[in-house]
Write a structure and sequence with these properties.
mainly alpha; 75% helix
C-alpha cells in the first residue's frame, strides 16, 4: 500500500520538481554576471534609442507631444513580448548546450513540470530585464509605465501569454530538429514586429494586411496602449479580444510542444541534439 501511494505521488504533478528546476536556472543566472547584464543591456539600449527619438519627434509634432512616452511605452511592451519568448527558449537552450536534455527527459520530471518551470524562469528573467529599464524611463524621459495601473497588468499578461505560445512552438522545433533550429529563438518573434503595429496604428497597414494584423493578439494590446495614452480610455473590448486569441495561441503552442516532443522520442533524436 505504501509503495502504491509513493508511485502515485511520483506520477502526479510535483511542485518540488518544478522548484528544483527553477532553482537550477536561477543558479545559472546568479553565478554568471554576463548573463544578468545581457538581460538589462539590450532593453536599456532600445529604451535610450526610442526615448530620444520620441523626445525629438515631440518637439516637431503636437500630435506626438500630446501622447508623451508613446514610443517608450511601445518599446517597453514590445520588449516584454520579446523577452518572455526568449526567456522560455533560452532556458531550454541551456539544456541543449549542456547536453543535459536526455538526462532530464529520462528523469521523473514530467513534461508539464518542465513547462511550468520554464514559464517561471521566463518571468524571473523578464523581471530582471524590464523592471530596471522601466524605472530608468521615469527620470530620463519622464514616463512612468507603472502609472497605467490595471491596463499595464492586462497588457503584460497578454503579451507574456503570446510570448509563451510562440516560445513553446520554438522549443518543439528545437526538440524535433536540434540546434539547427536555434536561430528561431532569436529571429522568429521579429516577424511579428511590423505586423502587430507596435509603433503605429493598424490603419497604417495596407487594407489587405489589416485582417492578419487583427488575428495577432499583440495588435490588440498595442492598439489598447495607444487608446490609453491618446484618449485616456481603457478598451476592454480589445483586452477580451487579445485574451481570446491568446488562449488559442497558448493552447496551440503547448500542443505543438507535446506533439513534437513525442515525435522526437519516436525518432530517437533526444540524445542527438547537434546541428
Amino acid at each position: 500500500m505504501r509503495g502504491a501511494k509513493t508511485a502515485m505521488r511520483r506520477d502526479g504533478f510535483s511542485f518540488t520538481r518544478v522548484g528544483a528546476m527553477v532553482l537550477r536556472y536561477w543558479y545559472l543566472l546568479a553565478n554568471s554576471w554576463p548573463r544578468v547584464i545581457e538581460l538589462v543591456y539590450w532593453p536599456t539600449v532600445n529604451l535610450l534609442t526610442w526615448g530620444f527619438v520620441q523626445s525629438y519627434v515631440a518637439t516637431k509634432s503636437s500630435y506626438f507631444a500630446g501622447a508623451a512616452g508613446l514610443f517608450v511605452a511601445a518599446l517597453l511592451l514590445w520588449d516584454t513580448l520579446l523577452r518572455s519568448q526568449q526567456g522560455l527558449a533560452f532556458a531550454f537552450l541551456e539544456e541543449m548546450w549542456s547536453r543535459n536534455l536526455g538526462n532530464l527527459l529520462m528523469s521523473p520530471l514530467r513534461p508539464m513540470e518542465f513547462v511550468v518551470s520554464l514559464m517561471a524562469i521566463s518571468l524571473i528573467r523578464l523581471a530582471i530585464g524590464m523592471v530596471p529599464v522601466s524605472l530608468i524611463a521615469i527620470p530620463v524621459f519622464g514616463f512612468n509605465i507603472w502609472g497605467l495601473g490595471l491596463a499595464l497588468a492586462a497588457f503584460f499578461a497578454n503579451l507574456v501569454a503570446t510570448g509563451w505560445g510562440l516560445g513553446f512552438l520554438i522549443i518543439g522545433l528545437l526538440l524535433r530538429h536540434g540546434l539547427g533550429a536555434e536561430a528561431l529563438s532569436w529571429s522568429l518573434m521579429f516577424v511579428l514586429l511590423p505586423i502587430t503595429c507596435v509603433y503605429y496604428p493598424v490603419a497604417t497597414l495596407p487594407a489587405w494586411l489589416q485582417p492578419l494584423a487583427w488575428a495577432l493578439p499583440p495588435t490588440h494590446v498595442f492598439e489598447g496602449m495607444r487608446a490609453v495614452l491618446f484618449d485616456h480610455v481603457f478598451r476592454v473590448d480589445l483586452l477580451f479580444s487579445a485574451m481570446a486569441i491568446n488562449a488559442v495561441w497558448l493552447a496551440g503552442g503547448l500542443f505543438a510542444f507535446h506533439r513534437l516532443l513525442a515525435a522526437a522520442r519516436r525518432a530517437g533524436s533526444l540524445l542527438q541534439q547537434g546541428e
